[in-house]
Design goal:
Blueprint lengths: L4 H14 L9 H30 L7 H24 L3 H25 L9 H50 L5 H10 L1
Helix pairs in contact: 1-5, 2-3, 2-5, 3-4, 4-5
Length: 191
């Protein structure tokens, strides 16, 4: 169904009148989640840069260091792509792609670093707060952003259909006629 701008304005008026602000991509929740995402992104980029510089300056060569460097570079590219997609495309699909990229980053990091970070004692705990926790939090935040964006689309479509049905009921009740599809499209354009 093609949505007309004049009826979308009525949808916005309806949402403002009813106080519907939680299901919008320009609302406070969405903006707060984006700020959290950007802060986590900056932290992750700093940690990735520190790892890459540390690997380049390392005197000892670990068995799987080269694979880990490539993994961190790949994850960095995925996260930058995720941020660019979220910045320039504010749609549900952009949020879904961003979520998938973040989950791929978490998975790749876990698979690669699991072998490298084994120590005599076991796993190094710094791995978790430096790399894994921020990536998992970023994935959770992108899932929440995706949920808010999806809810906004669904809410807008439901409200749009409700307003169109009300217009149709009011128009047919006052005219006592049935409308063809072409006539109905003209009525919607002119309201």
């Amino acid at each position: 169904m093609k949505m007309y701008d004049n009826i979308l304005e009525k949808v916005k008026e309806y949402e403002e009148k009813r106080g519907i602000v939680y299901a919008k991509t320009d609302g406070g929740l969405y903006k707060a989640l984006k700020i959290i995402y950007i802060l986590l992104f900056i932290y992750t980029m700093v940690m990735n840069a520190m790892f890459l510089l540390g690997a380049a300056l390392s005197e000892t060569v670990f068995k799987n260091l080269k694979n880990s460097v490539y993994t961190v570079l790949g994850i960095t590219v995925l996260l930058i792509a995720s941020l660019v997609i979220m910045k320039f495309k504010n749609t549900v699909w952009a949020n879904i792609v961003s979520t998938v990229l973040n989950i791929l980053g978490c998975t790749g990091l876990c698979l690669t670093f699991g072998v490298l970070l084994q120590d005599v004692i076991g796993f190094k705990i710094s791995f978790y707060w430096r790399h894994l926790v921020p990536l998992c939090l970023m994935a959770i935040v992108t899932i929440a952003l995706c949920a808010v964006a999806l809810r906004a689309v669904i809410k807008t479509q439901k409200t749009y259909k409700k307003i169109v049905e009300n217009i149709y009921e009011n128009y047919t009740a006052s005219e006592d006629t049935t409308l063809t599809d072409e006539q109905w499209q003209e009525v919607l354009k002119n309201i």
